[in-house]
Amino acid sequence: MTIAVAGSTGHLGRLTIEHLVAGGTDPTTIVALARDTLRAQQAFSGGIQIRAADYDDTETLEPALSGVDTLVLISGNDVGARVVQHRAVIDAAKEAGVNRVVYTSMLGASAALINPMGASHAATENDLRESGMAYTLMRNGWYSENFIDTARQAVATGEILGSAGDGKVASAARDDFASALAIVAANDGHDYATYELGGDTAWSYADLAKTVTEISGRDVTYRDVSEREHADTLVALAGLDEGTAAFIATIDQSIRAGELGTVTHDLSVLIGRPTTPIARTLADALSAE
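Now predict its structure.
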């Protein structure tokens, strides 16, 4: 069985390929799809195939997927272009004869009313349902690594600023999600399954402040503000443009509404171990500095 990983040179793609190899998949049956093939050549060895594939260049997609049985479709970073990009990949996969697509969606994608990324993921999920190919939906929650910069700033300022209220985040380490992707891609029994993936424990921003305090020894508190004040502060103090600031503040509203706090244990069941606590991820990052 040939497994292709799209977005192979990104953090999640690279870890997924590492887990495929560690799990016993023959490297010569792994295809690393990348826009930058030179970067992929520098990242992968041992017989892993490297093929050029650009979500925005449809002519590269079908040839890149020739002979592939299972495609790991890691969602694109451009939220505005994501639906069109993914649809092009799905169409090419169908034409190339791919049997199954394993897609990295978002926790609770079909029910997310506030999260600005929910609609694009739901659209791609629907495209997969209508594709005629088998598929597996890996609805990933938030990566704990997303909060490393927050922790750094908190150590410097003594404060975490947000507008999530008491909402919780069921985050896990990126490596946990990659391990699950590799397991599902390399094994049978996951056709048409939907996995709601997140950490075994959900935490609030107040909990996060306590965790950073324990790790760093610096007293850190959480200050909850309105969505508008949150966005305005990100513009004024963090130097973000208004669009990015509004996006971040909206994510906090999604957290406030409980859209990223669902605990299902699907992830720990798939990987056969507890998920990595956010305290470990943050401690490793801060101690490395």
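The radius of gyration is 19 Å.
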